[in-house]
């Protein structure tokens, strides 16, 4: 992400238009099927844990009122235009290099300043009621997508471990395993990938622990089996393949801050008025669209989140 990528053409822009439109029609069908599953689940009140155990299983979920109605980015772009340096630095690398990654079994430790530190199995987390949240995503590089994520609020998990009053921040850590993540054999970043949120950001209802997209468990290249999504912040805050969540008193660092602290700050709120040192953040290219569109403050989620930052200088706290 530090490097050369600005001029790159998204695959959807070079795809033959007819193929592209057919693909969209197919995705529309898949989304409708997802809605049917959600309704069926509600009506029958069923829960079948077996459905969640294997990779790319169908998930049961309810729709969320937080979802945008904007046109969803085709599944093929969501899974072939990725940033995931553990599996290569090119957008198309993760689809290929993460192909054989086994995201199960998987455990996540939640620890630090909590009353009941606990290690959760991914199957246990999948029993938390799931919602489909169609969010706008904005990468710091200047492209954006609309993705139908499936997950649960991070607050649901943090409430289970009972956060101590002393905790002020949450620190997230990705898997460190160079045998399974070939990109970690290269020193392009410091490993493991780490990220952080202020506690009130972490507890905000929009902040989501994601386990799936487009109706199924997460594809490996999108962060299986568990990743964070914070829709009002630049995409790199959405740490993938999380193995540890720690409640702490002091502001944690993040991988991109370690790599270039003048370019990537702790907050990383989407902000069209604060340019990246090497490019403007005023506009973005929605993957699949030709013309750029203006970037919205807090990625369009200002009504819900602006109050978290009242009184803060967002140029200083970028
Ligand atoms: N562990 C890990 N998480 C990561 C990254 C990464 O390289 N490693 N890249 C980040 C960046 S820069 C972005 S834009 C999003 C991309 O998520 P997506 O590929 O599902 O769209 O993942 C974020 N999470
Ligand atoms: Mo990004």
From TrEMBL:
Domain named Oxidoreductase molybdopterin-binding: residues: 101-256
SUPFAM superfamilies linked to this entry: Oxidoreductase molybdopterin-binding domain (SSF56524)
Catalytic activity as recorded in UniProt: L-methionyl-[protein] + a quinone + H2O = L-methionyl-(S)-S-oxide-[protein] + a quinol; L-methionyl-[protein] + a quinone + H2O = L-methionyl-(R)-S-oxide-[protein] + a quinol
Annotated Pfam families: Oxidored_molyb
GO molecular function per UniProt: metal ion binding; molybdopterin cofactor binding; oxidoreductase activity, acting on a sulfur group of donors, quinone or similar compound as acceptor
Binding-site residues for Mo-molybdopterin, renumbered to this chain: 82, 85-86, 139, 174, 227, 238-240
Catalytic EC class: oxidoreductase
EC number: 1.8.5.-
Subunit text: Heterodimer of a catalytic subunit (MsrP) and a heme-binding subunit (MsrQ).
Function: Part of the MsrPQ system that repairs oxidized cell envelope proteins containing methionine sulfoxide residues (Met-O), using respiratory chain electrons. Thus protects these proteins from oxidative-stress damage caused by reactive species of oxygen and chlorine. MsrPQ is essential for the maintenance of envelope integrity under bleach stress, rescuing a wide series of structurally unrelated cell envelope proteins from methionine oxidation. The catalytic subunit MsrP is non-stereospecific, being able to reduce both (R-) and (S-) diastereoisomers of methionine sulfoxide.
Name this protein carries in UniProt: Protein-methionine-sulfoxide reductase catalytic subunit MsrP
């Amino acid at each position: 992400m530090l490097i050369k990528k600005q001029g790159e053409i998204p695959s959807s822009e070079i795809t033959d238009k007819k193929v592209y439109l057919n693909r969209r029609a197919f995705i529309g069908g898949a989304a409708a099927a997802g809605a049917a599953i959600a309704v069926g689940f509600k009506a029958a009140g069923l829960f079948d844990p077996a459905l969640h155990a294997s990779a790319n299983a169908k998930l049961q979920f309810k729709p969320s009122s937080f979802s945008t109605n904007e046109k969803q980015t085709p599944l093929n772009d969501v899974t072939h235009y990725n940033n995931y340096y553990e599996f290569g630095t090119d957008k198309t690398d993760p689809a290929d290099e993460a192909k054989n990654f086994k995201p199960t079994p998987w455990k996540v430790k939640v620890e630090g300043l909590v009353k009941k530190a606990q290690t959760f199995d991914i199957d246990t987390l999948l029993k938390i009621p799931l919602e489909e949240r169609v969010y706008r995503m904005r990468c710091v590089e200047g492209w954006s997508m609309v993705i139908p994520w499936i997950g649960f609020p991070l607050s649901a998990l943090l409430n289970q471990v009972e956060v101590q009053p002393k905790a002020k921040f949450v620190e997230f850590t990705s898997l460190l395993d160079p045998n399974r993540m070939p990109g970690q054999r290269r020193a392009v970043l410091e490993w493991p990938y780490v990220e952080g949120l202020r506690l009130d950001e972490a507890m905000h209802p929009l902040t989501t622990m994601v386990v799936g997209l487009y109706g199924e468990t997460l594809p490996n290249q999108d962060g299986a089996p568990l990743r964070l999504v914070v829709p009002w912040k630049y995409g790199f805050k959405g740490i993938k393949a999380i193995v540890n969540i720690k409640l702490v008193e002091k502001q944690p660092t993040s991988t991109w801050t370690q790599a270039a602290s003048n370019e990537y700050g702790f907050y990383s709120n989407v902000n069209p008025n604060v340019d990246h040192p090497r490019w403007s953040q005023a506009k973005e290219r929605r993957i699949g669209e030709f013309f750029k569109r203006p970037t919205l403050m807090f990625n369009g989620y200002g009504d819900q989140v602006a109050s978290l930052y009242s009184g803060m200088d967002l140029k200083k706290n970028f």
